[in-house]
Automatic annotation (TrEMBL):
The keyword 4Fe-4S does not apply. The keyword Disulfide bond does not apply. Keywords: Hydrolase, Signal. GO terms for molecular function: hydrolase activity, hydrolyzing O-glycosyl compounds; sialate O-acetylesterase activity. Pfam families: SASA. Residues 104-206, 396-526 form the Sialate O-acetylesterase domain. GO terms for biological process: carbohydrate metabolic process. This is Sialate O-acetylesterase. Residues 1-20 form the signal peptide.
């Protein structure tokens, strides 16, 4: 009994000592940038009731920690400058942060196009060697998930140099470089981003409870990750048993490439697509896809190739049982088919896909999936047979998108209330299939962040670039166009700005490499929204033309715009406008002729005698648009109608 008592006393003493030292969260550190012209909160932990003194320049602030050991003090607003030294002193220890600057601090967040590092940008080879910008700093937040709010992150501040710049967010780097050149003050970037994530995982539980649809999801959040792993294992087990007939033996799997294999009991999936959205939720592993292709008699089968677009992550591809190629990582596949392997009549293509995490499946654009020869093209997009061959352990573990709130809890909440000027955001691709719901969830997230920080800071974001996600357009519907519309509608929130990037996307790559123009366009919006400065004395030079209203004159639609700046123009050497469509009461859209008349656009199509609606850039891949103002900012894609889209019924968690 006495031994147990002494052990308890020692444990209490160790606990008290561990909390006796003053400490600060990792958002603070040497080389950090503090926000100018705003109160600067500084906070951390110490022993209960311990006095903590913070010193910076002539400011000396003392605060007493609470009974829980937490403390917080606020430094008075300061002008830009540095380098300085910030000192935190307690009873038993002193912490000193060196090389502290005061300037402008911006959160950089979103999914992969914000995460995309400078080393992978289009002009990385020329930009990195000259990236000597000691007044630009980045705090790279390490990826983490949590079901409950955390109070600290992993990460440290880095000074921009040719050695560190490759790991900077490319969009953030070019944004900071442009701002620093205009404002002549230090710029701090807090890079908290994660590829492939949806907006709901960046939203707090409190905010989700304010939305009737999301409230149902919030109420289903598990208590622990052990519960998540157990539930995931049970879910995958049911999936395999009920939909796939169990996992195969190695010998059985070897027969799946053969042309005469009987796959009649296999399930079907519309290909190409991410299998996460087709019933294989959270599955990492191996899945086989098979397709029977009937080649017409008399077809000339010379120099045949199989194009199957991009794969996540690796593939082995067979034709009539023979391996014709394999590749690791994303990127289009174009495999040469040996002469004589294909025959008129029945043929079988089998693709063994290995997904090591996140997105899985055959995910390239539909038009990239085909058989191609000298005089023959056979489209292959459509229903393929599939069956799961193997399930990796990572399938049972929670990912960044498994539940809402996780990244808010782990990668944003610990940053609050660090003083910031604003946020730049590049995200939306993962929400595109729920674009209509994004009209609510995106503004909800912005307001959520602002409420947690306690002020309506500028929130600037990138509209989705052109990319042929699902070959969507006005005729068959476009999830990406509807997502862009939701982003445009979010401009109704105060202190928001949007960078349009339809003209600098890449048709076959969801990650356009031109991040410099993205950063510069965000910086132009920052100058307008955050700093109230405008080029040439105009308040319209940071953004492109935005549709205002439409009038009908016979068979012509006349469109007027806001943000015209110094005038409209078509970026085309012949002056032709592209990207416009018009429809009548039958709601069928036809490509239209469009002409600039002053600050208006006149649109008409010979097939539409009485126009009711006009659309501009309404497609997944809308890179052919070319309307600008003379300040060289592209027009915002738009539609004048409110006809029902294809994403209205799709909700989060379905």
């Amino acid at each position: 009994m006495k031994r147990m008592t002494w052990c308890l006393i020692i444990s209490v003493l160790v606990f008290q000592v561990s909390f006796a030292n003053v400490s600060l969260p990792n958002v603070f550190g040497s080389h950090m940038v503090l926000q100018r012209r705003k109160p600067v909160p500084v906070w951390g932990w110490a022993a209960p009731n311990e006095n903590v003194t913070i010193t910076l320049l002539s400011q000396v602030k003392t605060v007493q920690a609470g009974k829980d050991g937490k403390w917080r003090v606020s430094l008075d607003p300061m002008e830009a400058g540095g380098p300085y030294r910030l000192i935190a002193k307690g009873k038993n220890n002193t912490i000193t942060f060196e090389d502290v600057l005061v300037g402008e601090v911006w959160i950089c967040s979103g999914q992969s196009n914000m995460e995309w590092p400078l080393r992978s940008a289009a002009n990385a080879k020329t930009e990195i060697p000259k990236a000597i910008h000691p007044q630009i700093r980045q705090l790279l937040v390490k990826k983490s998930i949590s079901l409950t709010p955390k109070d600290n992150i992993e990460g440290s501040w880095a000074v921009c140099s040719p050695e560190t710049a490759p790991n900077f967010t490319a969009v953030g780097y070019f944004f900071a470089k442009q701002l620093q050149g205009e404002l002549h003050v230090p710029i701090g970037l807090i890079n908290t981003s994660w590829g492939g994530t949806h907006s709901e995982t960046w939203t707090s539980r409190e905010a989700m409870n304010q939305n009737e649809e999301l409230k149902l999801i919030a109420n289903k959040l598990p208590a622990t990750y052990e519960e998540v792993i157990q539930g995931g294992a049970e879910r995958i087990k049911v999936l395999i048993q009920t939909q796939q007939g169990g996992l195969p033996t190695a010998a059985e799997e070897q027969t799946w490439s053969k042309a005469d294999f009987d796959d009649s009991v296999w399930k079907t999936m519309d290909i190409p697509r991410d299998w996460e959205w087709a019933g294989l939720t959270s599955l990492d592993g191996i899945v086989w896809f098979r397709l029977e292709v009937v080649i017409p008699p008399g077809s000339k089968l010379s120099k045949m190739q199989l194009h199957i677009g991009s794969i996540e992550d690796n593939d082995s591809t067979f034709v009539n049982g023979q391996l014709i190629g394999s590749k690791k990582g994303r990127g289009a596949r174009e495999y040469v088919i040996p002469e004589g392997l294909l025959k008129p009549g029945r043929n079988v293509i089998a693709v063994r896909v290995v997904d090591t995490g996140a997105v899985g499946g055959m995910v390239g654009p539909r038009e990239q999936l085909n058989l191609v020869g000298e005089s023959l093209i056979i489209p292959l997009a459509g229903l393929w047979k599939y069956r799961v061959a193997s399930v990796f352990a990572s399938s049972y573990k929670p990912g960044s998108n498994t539940y809402a709130t996780q990244l808010f809890n782990a990668m944003l909440n610990p940053l609050i209330p660090y003083a910031i000027q604003g946020t730049i955001w590049y995200q939306g691709e993962t929400n595109a299939k729920r674009a209509y719901q994004y009209r609510k969830t995106f503004p909800l997230m912005i307001q959520d962040w602002r409420q947690h920080w306690g002020y309506d800071f500028p929130f600037l974001y990138v509209q989705l670039a052109s990319y042929n996600a699902l070959n969507g357009n006005s005729r068959n519907g476009s999830t990406w166009a509807e997502l862009r519309e939701a982003q445009t509608m979010t401009l109704q929130l105060p202190n928001t700005g949007m960078a349009v990037t339809s003209d600098i996307g890449e048709r076959m790559d969801i990650h356009p490499k031109n991040k410099e123009d993205v950063g510069k366009r965000l910086a132009a919006e920052a100058m307008r929204v955050a700093y109230h400065k405008n080029e040439a004395g105009s308040d319209e030079t940071s953004r492109g033309p935005q549709f205002d209203k439409m009038t009908i004159d016979g068979n012509k639609a006349i469109l007027t715009f806001r943000n015209v700046g110094q005038g409209l123009f078509a970026k085309d050497k012949y002056g032709y406008l592209r990207g416009f469509e018009v429809a009548g009461s039958d709601q069928k859209f036809y490509y239209a002729k469009a002409a600039i008349q002053g600050n208006s656009i006149v649109v008409h199509a010979d097939s539409v005698t009485t126009p009711l609606a006009v659309r501009y850039g309404w497609a997944d891949d809308n890179g052919d648009v070319n309307l600008y103002n003379r300040d060289n900012f592209p027009a915002i894609p738009f539609r004048t109608d409110t006809w029902k889209g294809i994403t209205e019924a799709v909700k989060f968690g379905e």
